Please model this.
Amino acid sequence: MTAFTSILALPLALSLPLRAQDFVFNNGSEPQSLDPALISGVPEGRISAALFEGLTVNDAETALPVPGLASGWTVSRDLRTYTFTLRETTWSDGTPLTARDVVDAWMRVLDPKTGSPYAYLLGDNIEGADAYLKGRGPASGVALRAPAPRTFVVTFVGPLPYALAMLTHSAFMVTPTFAVRRFGPGAWTKPAHFVGNGPFVLKEWHPQDRIVVVRNPRYWDAGNIRLRSITFLTIEDQNVAFDKYKAGEIDYVPDDSMPSGRIDEIRLRKDYHHMPGSMVYYFVFNLIRRPFDDVRVRKSLSMAVDRDELTRRVLKAGDIPSAGFVPAMGGYRTTRGNGFDPDRARALLAQAGYPGGRGFPRITITYNTSARHKLICEWVQQAWKTILGVDVELHNLEWNTFLDTKQKTHDFQIARSGWVADYPDPSNYLDMFKTGAGNNDGLYANPRYDALLARAATMLPGPERDRALEQAEELLVTRDQAVLPFFFYVTRYVLDDRKWGGIHLNALDIHHPRWWRPR
Amino acid sequence: MLRFMIRRALSLIPTVFLIITFAFVIIRAAPGGPFASEKQLPPEILANVQKRYHLDESLPRQYVRYLGDFARGDLGPSFRYKDFTVGELIGDALPPSMLIGALALLISVAAGVGAGVASALRQNSWLDYAAMSLAVIGISVPLFVTGPVLKLYLALKHPWLPTSGWLGGRSGWLVLVMPVLTLALPYMAGIARLTRASVLEVLRADYVRTARAKGLSERVVVLRHVLKGALLPVVSYLGPAFAGIITGTVVVETIFAVPGMGRLSIQAAINRDYTLIMGDVIVFSVILVLMNFVVDLCYGFLDPRISYS
Model:
């Protein structure tokens, strides 16, 4: 046996000396694409941030926007027009990168033929872009200009307080339209033809296995990139990935790759890091279905869940319980919502005509199949039974079927939901509940709410705007209880920070690969 | 013989045609679509995307278009993985599955036939009991137990093997050991039991008695007469088993992060990647039909009573 095992161990020992400049980690599912114009997921975002750079990038520690491709900018008095000065730099193939490239890249995202999932981010915010995106206006009407090779000018629809943060998003990254034209979609993102402007360039892409990127010697700040390569592994199963980390085969487990079923084991580790994040976990009520058309019923259900117990005793991950929906950010304060109050919960249910739960119909919570959601829904089922005497059925659906049920057919009573902002601004949480909005799955409709959001959209950043948005959240959650928030997820990761630096906890859970480095 | 082969090859066409039709209809009956996501696409953009993939056309037109492309050898673009065609994805995923499957099958045939013959020749000995007890365990313990247990002992408790991954990484060929072993165990057990039963039966056959009566040595009787006859059921088991094992198993590929067909197919189904699902189904069914064909041919060599004329 010992002879056998030493034979086995020999080649492993020879191949193991880990080269300290090569960073390996699990990136999760296979990316939909490496073209920043076509992507929408977290794993895709991480790779594109290594390969491309927009005008601003997320800071390593705070994730706030700092200069990227733009070395600086000036803002007009009405806060609508931004004039960026670009760095003197080239694409990874040596072609000079100019302001024209930025205009072309953004126009490609807006081009209806591209079919970019985040085109609306540009359409909603850039002057003239919405009309062009929807085929109702000319390309020349989009307020993007390149008056000089290193000067780029954009005019937004209003004084967007979140403009610079929004520009870190992958939809605003600069892509080489000349390469897209030359090699065609699908081919230009392959290692043989790849052209980018990020800190790394694409070296290998093996679907379902790994993507390897290496340092880009032509990156404007190449001297400060200390990793020689990053390997993005494609492992969907979080337990498999975590075993790999435990065996020392990978260096980092990001939040989305963490097996939540093993939190008891993970939270005791010295290399586990966590802090409150900005993703909200909530239930959405179908407001046109009985008995959820009665606000007293909805409030009663909200007051019957002890969110503190859920996060501390059941989930144990450090999530922040909240009956409000929008996490606090800048000067914005989360609304208090209708927190745990069993007596009032019972009273409200009685007022609605169901004293002690008598006569209350059997209700169903619909969720997408996952151990974590099951745990939460079972806990809620128990809480509503004991406190309100209400019978709840749980209905789990496979992901795509779940989305169809929730978004298209609206054939649910209560559905599990989660939301994370594309950029840190309260409006990004609240806009989806505007009457008729695309993600308004519970069909909330309140003209006063719509008016408040419309007003906030034209206001300058500051306390006054924050108050208007706070009022909107107050309406949505505390008054109308259109949704039932539970907690804000923690953002967390596992990393040996004695070996690696440049990855820091931040509420947005954004960790830009440009900053990653060996200690 | 040649006529038989041509006839079988031609019969592939209606089979594949039927499979394509069924798969095409069933996939589209599933709720959701390839472009559903928690953050919904605005309607104008969704319309553009659907147009790009011809999903805005009527179902019969999409079907005819698919058949036309298929006849030209084009399996179409993947809806989910926008930088790849279905052909590219399958071309990347098939070799890992085939490598692991072929190695596993090789091991299980060698060990399974060996153990089966030995057990039958020494029926009711301790060797027989030991081998057959192991075989029962091999058959009844599912892959999702064997895999993690192997991983726990060979990779996590003792750092002998890499926990998962594929060739080209830090650990070289050692990544193959555990997936091959995990996959081989149930097949090994199945083949051992099948071989044992079949050898026992053949040992009592008239022609074996005749061989012995001729005064042949036991060695020659077993190798030339018993084994040849006893392998028939094993060969018919191997056809579909080979097709199944080389087209990938989700469990083993997931546990050991093998970039193979099993994982590809599952992800395709979850993502409603219509063209990729179709491609997977077609590849799997063609391999299955081909393997059954090969089995039929093997019969002719193993059993002199079978003729194809």
Notes: Chain B touches chain A through 60 residues (CB under 8 Å).
